[in-house]
Amino acid sequence: MSKRIMVVDDSRLVRVQLADLLEGTDYEIAAYCRSGEEAIAQYDEVNPDLVTMDIIMHGMDGLEASKIILKEHPDAKIVMLSSLAYDDTYEKAKEVGAKGFVDKPFHREQLLKVLGEVFC
Ligand SMILES: [Mg+2]
């Protein structure tokens, strides 16, 4: 059974890249959200196995959105997907309860490795 992923990113390019990279893998993209607000609103209905979360987005950032999702769904699996804007971003991601971190620009192997670690 493939794992269902909810992709949260305000960049259309990243959404397309992810779809491309995950093609033919054990992961399928169940939903795309363009903002943290949308992710929070969609989470219940989509009920994904994993969320990839951008950090820098218009409106609410990915750290805040993750915090809110994890408050309601403590077992949510969230992997941050971001270019490091600040040195303490890894730490903040860990603090809010993210299960992993993938740096942008990302590569297929790196992405699949981090996603795999979340499920083992
Ligand atoms: Mg962004």
Question: Can you lay out the helices and strands and say which pair or pack?
Answer:
Layout: E1 3-8, H1 12-22, E2 27-33, H2 36-46, E3 50-53, H3 62-72, E4 78-82, H4 89-96, E5 100-103, H5 108-118
Magnesium ion binds at residues 9-11, 54, 56-57.
Low-pLDDT residue intervals, each spanning 5 or more residues? none
Overall number of structural domains? 1
If classified by CATH, what would the architecture be? 3-Layer(aba) Sandwich
Compounds present? magnesium ion
Give me the count of strands: 5
Main sheet: which strands, in order across?
Answer: 2-1-3-4-5
Biggest sheet details: 5 strands, parallel
**Separation of the first and last Cα atoms:** 15 Å
What would you call the structural class? alpha/beta
Residues in helix, % = 40-55%
Structure annotation, total helices? 5
Q: Which CATH class is shown?
A: Alpha Beta
How would you portray this structure in words?
The protein is of the alpha/beta class. The chain has a single domain (3-118), classed as 3-Layer(aba) Sandwich (Rossmann fold), CATH 3.40.50.2300. 43% of the residues lie in helices and 22% in strands. It has helices at 12-22, 36-46, 62-72, 89-96, 108-118, and strands at residues 3-8, 27-33, 50-53, 78-82, 100-103. A five-stranded parallel β-sheet has the order 2-1-3-4-5, with helices on both faces. β3 (50-53), α3 and β4 (78-82) form a beta-alpha-beta unit. α2 (36-46) packs parallel to α3 (62-72). It is globular, with a radius of gyration of 13 Å. The chain starts with a strand and ends with a helix. 31% of the residues are buried. The model has no long low-confidence stretch (mean pLDDT 95). The chain binds magnesium ion. The site of magnesium ion has 6 residues, from loops.
